[in-house]
Amino acid sequence: MTRPWSSRLRFRAVAVVVAATACAGGLALPGAAVAAPGAAVTAEAPADVVVPFRADARLVSSGPTGFLSVVGDTHYWTRYADGVETRLPRSGYRASAQSDVLVWNEGTRYFVHDMARGVDAEPVVIDSAYELRGVNGSTLVMRDAADGIHLVDRVPGGDVVDRAVGGLPADTVRRVYSTAPGAVAVQTATVDALKDRLSVVDIATGAVTATYDVHSGTDAVQVSAEYVAWRVGTDVTMVAGRDGGAPVRQSFWGPLVTGGWMAVDNGFALRRIGDRGTVYPLDAARQVVVGSDGAALVYGGTIADGRGLFRISVGADGKAVVKKVADSGERLELVVKSESVPTVVDFDRESRHEMRWEFDHQDVSLTVELTHTATGRRTTLNSWWAPDDFEARVAWDGLSEKYFGAPNGVHTWKMTTESVYGTPVTRTGTLTVVRGPRPRDVTDNGVADVLVRDAAGKLSAYEVSQLEAVGRYFDCHEEGCRPPLRATTPTTLGTGWNTYTLMASPADRTLVGRDRDGVLWQHRSEQGKLLPRTKVGGGWQVYNTIVGGSDLNGDGRGDLLATDASGVLWFYASTGDAGTPFKARKKIGGGWQTYNLLTAPGNVAGASGGDLLARDKDGVLWMYLGKGDGTFTARRQIGGGWQKYTHVVPAGTSSRGVADLFAIGPSGSAMYYGRDSTSTPFGDARKVSVNGDSTTYKSVF
Fold first, then answer.
1. Cβ atoms of residues 448 and 530 within 8 Å
2. Fewest CB within a 10 Å sphere: which of 294, 435, 479, 626?
3. At a CB cut-off of 8 Å and minimum separation 6, what does 645 contact?
4. pTM confidence score
5. DSSP state of 611
């Protein structure tokens, strides 16, 4: 069935810079032609007619009078003159590069169709027992059983002409390449396993015109009117003149285009051989073949003219000349084909969650901005480079680009693509972050906090994830990596905290403070914000130290410890009741005045209860393992040198549930990661780029 098509669209010349890429052809057979609805068949169309091109088709080859395309296994031949499209009934055929010739075979019979003679013209039939290795114009390039190369022709009604190619090296033929009219390249092996010979054969004379030494790994060869190009592996491109001159290495690869250019990146750019210039004729490109005149024929598009086939060449002035020769009827806009974004993100179940979008274009970069509706805190995620992928994605591990934890609760998200065709694409939605309570996480974002009160009474939460990252260099060479963190940005929890003389965090999302009158107050946090304080009780002026964080009796709740002026250590078990948060105190024992620093980080060495750390006046740190009943085993020495720190505080737990420490002093700070060992409970100090001063870090807990 015939599908004639006419259009008032005209070719537009565009001055730009370009490059070309080589493409292999497939082929098909004459059959039924299909008529486009409402279109009239014209005997002869104007030279500037723009014919149709199926949007879902792949371009195979192009000759002087038409082009071959394929959808799935179905091939179509479209005439340039009037847009008539012929559906070809067969598949698995060969197309002669830069010509109108298509070839198919049944056994040893080869049917050569010259589409310029018309789709119904009888093919030329050639019967040959040789192996077909290429098609050049109407000539079959074949190999015999003895590795000889033959050029086989037949004109309509004439005899078969079989010409043996002379002058080839007497070696095994590896491959035959036919990429341009009038010449083929034959690659032959040598006795050296790493070296091959590449010979250019003139179709008209059957003679070898030039020979090149190439690597045996060569697997792609092109011949144009001016150059011979080949590739070794995926990153070595060699180009030599047709006269057999010395090859030169190039940094790019693509189809050879007339004038000494290559069409690279599927025809998106044309680069001059010798790295002497690049032009970009289109706003998008998907595929390129070389047309009959040696110009690039690119399936791509421009914002002004939409998508279709564009014939591209480069003039003497180094500017690209662009003509649209076929129209797919599509505007050049980025289309989102699918979207996959979770509605619930549970970081307790999975440590990383992906958000994905599929586009009709490869290598789309995008940014996702998430905003926590309750606090306004933002997280920005960037996609990573995927040049051959139609899908763009971001991965979220629960941290922002500034190493903040993602707060629990509802987040709005906005996805924005980079400007692909002039206008970015955006998508929006919501998701909910859920996770259970984490030790020392006051801000409800899955990351332990180090609490700091400054001299003015401002209370801030420093996230451990930020403390670990600040000033460190992360060796990351991919898109989507977080930038280096230059400074911490703590979360302000409130002001007026200088009314308290002692403070501690006995349980998750719970703070206590003792005022100057000896009254103990409790502050609970919900959704990252502190609630109004509640009174615990008076009489706490007898204590000079209070610490919290360890579950000392194994009931799942963090407890409180306090030392009085006489050096007695007291245990306050948590009740879980906000009205009466602690049970009556129990005496643990005396002699604790020998220590000038206590910290209760939780499970340090795998005992049944929470543990306690104490530093003596000589800077030695001691460990007391909890028994699970509010008492401790005999102390064990961890090591000396801890006098350089003014504060040693809990810093959350590892994935194994072992407590970590953050230590800070005037000369610097460090993280100490728990090793779940009674003999060596902590690893070596990992330095943190934060120095503790008595004004900013007046109290740390």
1. no
2. 479
3. 597, 663, 664, 665, 669, 692
4. 0.64
5. E
Q: Check: CB of residue 315 under 8 Å from CB of residue 404.
A: no
Give the count of beta carbons closer than 10 Å to the beta carbon of residue 604.
29
Rounded to an integer, the average pLDDT of 460-478 is: 81
- Could you tell me which of 217, 30, 185, 244 has the C-alpha nearest to residue 116? 30
d(CA 329, CA 341): 31
CA distance 238 to 204: 26
CA proximity to 253, closest of 268, 240, 234: 234
Strands 520-526 and 510-515: antiparallel
Main-chain dihedrals φ then ψ at residue 122, nearest 5 degrees: -65, 135
Structure tokens at 526: 């919900």
Report the candidate in 599, 552, 598 with the shortest Cα–Cα distance to residue 573: 552
Dist. CA 12–CA 163, nearest whole Å: 45
Task: Report how far residue 689's alpha carbon sits from residue 686's, in angstroms, rounded to the nearest whole number.
Answer: 10
| Distances 289 to 101, 153, 297 between C-alpha atoms, Å | 15, 25, 5
Please state whether beta strands 51-52 and 320-327 pair in parallel, antiparallel, or not at all (unpaired).
Answer: parallel
* Predicted local confidence at residue 124, as pLDDT: 95
User: Could you report the per-residue pLDDT of 194-214, keeping only the tens digit for each?
Assistant: 999 999 999 999 999 999 999
- The stretch 614-642 carries a mean pLDDT of 94
Q: Which region holds residue 227: left if phi is over 0, alpha if psi is between -120 and 50, else beta?
A: beta
- Give dist(CA 366, CA 379) in Å, integer: 14
DSSP summary character for residue 465: H
d(Cα 586, Cα 688) in Å, to the nearest integer? 38
Q: Contact at 8 Å (CB) between 527 and 444?
A: yes
- Taking the C-alpha atoms of residue 562 and residue 547, their distance in angstroms, rounded to an integer, is 6
E strand or H helix that includes residue 636? strand 636-639
Residue 273: CB partners within 8 Å, gap ≥ 6? 227, 239, 248, 250, 260, 261, 262
Number of residues that this document lists for the chain: 701
- Cα dihedral 530, 533, 536, 542 sign: positive
**Do the Cβ atoms of 615 and 643 come closer than 8 Å?**
yes
Q: How many helices (H) and strands (E) does the chain have?
A: 1, 59
Question: Dihedral of the CA atoms 581, 587, 589, 591 (nearest 10)?
Answer: 70
- The pLDDT-based confidence of 480 (bands split at 50, 70, 90) is low
Strand blocks (E) in 407-479: 409-417, 426-434, 449-453, 459-463
Average pLDDT over every residue of 317-322: 93
First to last CA, the chain: 83
- Per the CB < 8 A criterion, the answer to whether 104 and 23 are in contact is no
In three-state form (DSSP H/G/I as H, E/B as E, the rest C), the secondary structure along 377-418 is: CEEEEECCCCCCCCEEEEEECCECCCCCECCCEEEEEEEEEC
Rounded Cα distance, 460 and 678, in Å: 33
Query: Residue 221: what residue type?
Result: V
Q: What are phi and psi of 31, to 5 degrees?
A: -165, -130
Residues 6+ apart with CB under 8 A from 183: 136, 200, 201, 202, 203, 209, 223, 242
Q: Which residues contact 479 (CB under 8 A, 6 or more apart)?
A: 365, 382, 383, 384, 385
CA-CA distance, 652 to 604, in Å (whole number)? 11
Angstrom distance (rounded) from CA 312 to CA 181: 19
